[in-house]
Amino acid sequence: VRRLKTRSPRRAPLPKAVNLFDFEALAQKHLPLVAWEYLCGGAGDEITLRRNRECLDAIRLKPRVLRDVSQIDTQLTLFDQRLDHPILLAPAAYHKVFHPQGEAAAARGAGAAGAVLVVSSFATVKFEAIAAAAKAPLWFQLYVQRDRAMTRELVQHAETVGCRVLCVTVDTPVGGSRNREMRRGFNLPPGVKMENVAGVRGGSPSAGHITSGDIYSEHLDPSMTWETIDWLRSFAKTPLILKGILTKEDARLALEHGAAGILVSNHGGRNLDTAPASIEALPGVVEAVAGRVPVLFDGGVRRGTDVVKALALGARAVMIGRPYLWGLAADGAEGVTQVVRLLLAEFRSAMALCGVTSLAQISPEVLWP
Ligand code: FNR
Ligand code: LAC
């Protein structure tokens, strides 16, 4: 009996990344443990973090057939901006923890994939350099600082470099209990700092390594209220949206206080553990908003089918957080571009298999009842 000769699996080339989870595995290989745990971690027992995925997985889509899906159009208009597709890059702090070129690489990678990058207040590259690397529009994410003059300067600085939307994060008056960061003593590596927020403690040489706890206590304002939003609107030149709304009550208040949009988010499960999955909260917010402003969504988006589901439940667009950071860690700007392209290709395929050819056609009808 002749033995079939098979190739030794050890000699097979490294498989290329074909989905976002492949990039997750690559990122974990590339990053020091402390950076990896900052990136992947959630608050508390990570119940909300897991639930973001579980609830998206549990939704079923409805396949339709024989509908001519030869032309798929993913374009949309959002805050008067024409976008090629509804996949945006969520604000994330400290990109230089993941790649030496930090936010400049992320902006370059986003631009090549036609994706909006929301630049974090805690960026580790100067706004000017991020803007110079960007080919797609930038938005700006604000963490309100205790020093209101500094806060105003930060917003105006972001506007000056061309950020087109002001995304105010309202779900983080204080940080969540992030046990992974605490256990590893997460810190910014030497030479890495917040480049656009004047250092309260960040610049102090005695601090050396800064723990995220220190950063949170110094650079978040637990006293902010709805009046702070009114104050921001009094001078902001760009549309103001609120990031981190999960309830109908807060959605109604957001409208009363003139928000131009709402981002339904639980901060990727990093703040209040045992809060619901973002996708569970989305329908209630969409109902309360009743079409008056765009509702955006983030939390656990990993597959093109997830994008279809969020849009079917009323989101106008989605943001991804960890996945593009996986791309950044694995392969810099190119990795970011690849992550968006893979997700977009899956999204287009899922649209076709659901029998829809434009975003306007994505309704609750695409969900299995
Ligand atoms: C974040 N997020 C975040 N949000 C924000 O408003 N400002 C910030 O600076 C950061 N920083 C940050 C760092 C890291 C490492 C992560 C993973 C997340 C939250 C982010 O914008 C978004 O809400 C979630 O990441 C979305 O969930 P997924 O896609 O990561 O599941
Ligand atoms: C985080 C903060 C910086 O999620 O928003 O790590």
What does this structure look like?
- The structure is a single chain.
- The chain is of the alpha/beta class and 369 residues long.
- 40% of the residues lie in helices and 11% in strands.
- The chain has 13 helices and ten strands.
- The chain has helices at residues 20-30, 33-40, 47-58, 102-112, 127-133, 148-160, 179-184, 212-219, 226-235, 248-256, 278-289, 304-312, 322-353, and strands at residues 76-78, 81-83, 87-89, 117-119, 138-142, 166-169, 240-245, 261-264, 295-298, 317-320.
- The strands form two sheets. Strands 3-10-9-8-7-6-5-4 form an eight-stranded parallel sheet.
- The longest helix has 32 residues, at 322-353.
- It is globular and about 60 Å long.
Major pleated sheet: 8 strands, parallel
The structure class reads alpha/beta
The largest beta-sheet arranges its strands as 3-10-9-8-7-6-5-4
Give the proportion of residues in helices. 40-55%
Query: What's the tally of helices?
Result: 13
Poorly predicted runs of 5 or more residues: 201-212
Could you tell me the number of beta strands?
A: 10
The portion of residues forming beta strands comes to: 5-15%
Written as H for each helix and E for each strand, in order along the chain, the element string is: HHHEEEHEHEHEHHHEHEHEHEH
Q: Which compounds are bound in this model?
A: ligand FNR, lactic acid
Mean pLDDT: 93
Task: State the end-to-end CA separation.
Answer: 55 Å
What is the CA-based Rg, rounded?
A: 21 Å
